[in-house]
Amino acid sequence: MKNRVILLFTSLLCVAGLNVSSAQEIKAVQLYTQDELINMINKNEHLTRVVTDRCQLVQDIEAHAEVLREPAYQFLWGDMLAWGVCVDAEPERGIGFIRDASEQGLPAALEQLGRYYAKGTLVQTDKKRAVIYLREASALGNLKAQMQLAQLFLDGHGSPYDYEDTYHWLYNAVTDDKKTHSDIAGYLSELEKLMHPKAVRNARRPADS
Fold this sequence. Notes:
The chain is mostly helical. It contains 13 helices and no strands. The protein has helices at about 1-15, 20-25, 35-40, 45-50, 60-65, 70-85, 90-105, 105-120, 125-140, 145-155, 165-170, 180-190, 195-205. Mean pLDDT is about 90; it is low at about 1-25.
C-alpha cells in the first residue's frame, strides 16, 4: 500500500510538470514573526520575500490578516492583493487591509496610504488626506513620512501650524545614508524660509524634550 501511495505521488508530480528531485528541493517555509515582518516591510522587502518563498505562505498570511487581524500581516496581505503578488490582484480589498493596518497604528501602513493619496496611486489624489496619514506616521517616527510631509508643505499643502513639528522631527533624524542626510538638510533649509525664527529655535530642541 505504501509503495502504491509513493507511486501515485510521483505520478501526480509528473503531471504537474515536476520530478521527484525538484520536489524534494521545495522545503516548508517558516512563518515570519511580527518583528521579522515589520523589519522586511520597513526595508520594502516583504513582497520580494513572499515570492522568494515560492508563495507557500499565502494561506497563513491571509489567516493572520483576516482572522487574527495582526497589523503587519494586514499590511502584507493588503500589498499582495493590491499588486497581485502570489494572488489575483484586488486593489480595492488590498487598500482596505492596508487601511486596517493603519488604524491599528502601523507606521508603514500610514506612510504608504499617505504616499498613495499624495501621488494618486491606486486611489484618487487627495493631498489633505495625504497630510493626515503622513503626519500620523511622522509622529510615530517614520522618516520617509516626515520627508514626504515636508515636501507637501513646501508644495503649499497642509497647515503652517505643523511646520514646527515637521522641522523638529527632521532636525533630530538620524541616518547613515548620505543622500537622505542631504535631502533632510534641504528640507530644513526650505522650511526655515516659511517659519518664524522663534519657531525654528523651538523646533531645534532635543528629540526627547
